[in-house]
Amino acid sequence: MTKDEIRVWIREQGQRRSPGEVEAASLQAQRHLLASEAYRSAGRIGCYLSTPVELQTRMILEQALAEGKTLGAPRFDEGSDSWAHVCMRDPDAVMIGSWKVPEPLPGEVLEPLDLVIVPGRAFDRSGNRVGHGKGHYDQLLQGFSGICVGMAFDWQILETVPREAHDRAMDLLFTESGEQLLP
Questions:
Q1: For the whole model, what pTM was predicted?
Q2: Domain CATH number, residue 135
């Protein structure tokens, strides 16, 4: 399947899930991530602000802040036409940005990061990712040398997905079933 075909198939699969299923699976996946060594050892974390169709991240945001970790979330700057992780001190200090996704309120850019938590439409067993098709995370992860963690529902894990030269593979992948072992 092409990336576009995967996006359509995943969207159809997601529409079959009830809000209760999404919430329960999201809580399990977040618990697995929060128990991981990668999360526990990270002091500076970037995390996406989830939309209703993505694996939810609210527990991660709250836990990171409660533990005193430095937390950032992606924010688009129209002036520079680029994305950056912006420092967050309150998980409710959010707005809907120009790309119609939740973003933190304006603040200081947070660099460097130890760990970045990434959403995706689909992932494969090698850590490759299919995003929403706009290249936001390709740009955001350019030059990032820390740990990339994908968050997904079990049904978003495919045997293989197309990979392009600019795609950054995930180092770790968590679903409601736990950490998915990557090569």
A1: 0.93
A2: 3.40.50.10420
